[in-house]
Design brief:
about 15% strand; five-stranded parallel β-sheet; 16 helices; seven-stranded parallel β-sheet; alpha/beta
């Protein structure tokens, strides 16, 4: 079967789909991955066919407007810039899907469900976060409340699903009519009169499969694409790691706040107060520093599956991929969320006992960080729970579970 996977965004939005695509290809399917051209080398490393998209959301995030939005500003200020990019992406995805038997897509790629309808082929929504299957078991991961009660939980999912697509409904409706020859109206959760299948690449030990889900929704376990075997660490990093106790890892991935220098000063001051070593990951600009003490090492990038073998705990923004990677390594975790599902993962990690209560970016302080850093190193109960969870996640084999479920669709 020829399968086209569609995903855009940061590396955390793309790498799980590389893992999923590699698993599907190993099962005998011909897999292409349509994503931003900046991830061409990553896609090629898995032996997948690259279908490049011009849409570069990471470049947009790096603008002043993008940084203000991620730091808690008005996210709707970006809509005027995002819409032309999304409109072009719809046409690009359609062109890449001209000879495809099945679509698997990240919901950010708005074209997936509509191309499947026009071509009369099956489609599957795939996401690391359980966002598109309403349930009474927990509230939508996009709101800052874990449990509103059964009926309100379910309502929160439906409301957030509607809101997620409402801003682009006019644009998509016009595209459906003018390009695909389809009627403007549609339901994002159905295709051909049947429920649209939805698969989630997260651990069942953090999010148990809700009892009120039907067969069209499935939690498979996380989709990991390891790169340690192809990556050579710089000598200076190896020297730092061997020069003392295992450090903490601190990085905010694709999140780039408006005052990275201030956040970095808070982090370094807290580390020095409690005498803890650390590796800081520059990421997309959430951390920056010109001068650091010898106990702190700054990196631009290192594969999590390599780096997390060498650290004592992780501090990050709470992206689904980074959260899963840290927990798979059995590491106690502190999540410092910016927005969205990051708060959800922080609560889930804390509830399991594998990490601390999340500290929102706007509430970061030297006192709070110092207390948290000390606990990550010295709280034996939390470290034991994190190690237990790591063993469970390593045994899940989410890609294999996903491939079996997709094949049954």
């Amino acid at each position: 079967m020829k399968i086209l996977i569609l995903s855009v965004g940061s590396q955390g939005d793309v790498q799980p789909y590389v893992a999923l695509g590699a698993g599907l290809q190993a099962a005998g399917h011909a897999v292409s991955l349509a994503t931003s051209a900046r991830f061409g080398a990553l896609v090629a490393s898995a032996g997948l066919r690259m279908a490049p998209l011009q849409a570069d959301f990471m470049a947009l995030i790096d603008t002043p407007e993008g940084k203000r939005s991620l730091a808690g500003g008005n996210p709707f200020s970006l809509l005027k810039k995002v819409e032309p990019m999304l409109r072009g992406m719809l046409d690009e995805c359609l062109a890449h899907a001209s000879d495809t038997d099945m679509l698997i897509y990240h919901p950010k790629v708005l074209a997936g469900r509509h191309i499947a309808e026009a071509h009369r082929i099956p489609a599957i929504v795939a996401h690391p976060v359980p966002l598109f299957s309403p349930t009474r078991a927990f509230a939508s991961p996009l709101i800052p409340f874990d449990n509103l009660g059964g009926a309100l939980n379910q309502l929160s999912h439906r409301l957030l699903i509607w809101l997620s697509f409402s801003f682009f409904r006019t644009m998509i409706g016009q595209w459906r009519s003018e390009v695909l020859g389809l009627v403007p109206g549609w339901d994002e959760l159905s295709l051909g009169g049947r429920p649209l299948p939805r698969i989630y690449g997260c651990s069942r030990h953090l999010v148990a499969q809700p009892a009120d889900w039907h067969d069209h929704s499935f939690i498979s376990g996380s989709w990991f694409y390891d790169q340690a075997h192809t990556w050579q660490p710089p000598a200076a990093l190896e020297q730092f790691l061997s020069a003392g106790a295992p450090p903490l890892y601190i990085g905010f991935g694709s999140m780039a706040g408006p005052d990275a220098a201030r956040i970095t000063r808070l982090i370094v001051s807290a580390l020095e107060r409690v005498g803890v070593r650390a590796i800081l990951a520059r990421g997309a600009g959430g951390i920056t520093a010109d001068q650091l003490p010898p106990s702190v090492y700054l990196i631009d990038h290192a594969p999590h599956d390599w780096l997390f073998r060498h650290v004592a705990g992780v501090v990050h923004h709470g992206g689904a991929g980074t959260t899963a990677a840290g927990l798979r390594a059995g590491l106690p975790t502190l999540i410092c969320p910016f927005f969205g599902d990051q708060v959800f993962w922080g609560r889930r990690v804390m509830a399991y006992g594998a990490g601390l209560a999340p500290i929102a970016q706007r509430r970061l302080s030297v006192d709070r960080l110092a207390t948290a850093f000390d606990a990550l190193i010295h709280d034996d109960t939390m470290r034991r729970r994190a190690a237990e969870l790591g063993a469970l996640i390593r045994a899940e084999d989410g890609v294999a579970q996903a491939v079996r479920w997709i094949s049954r669709q």
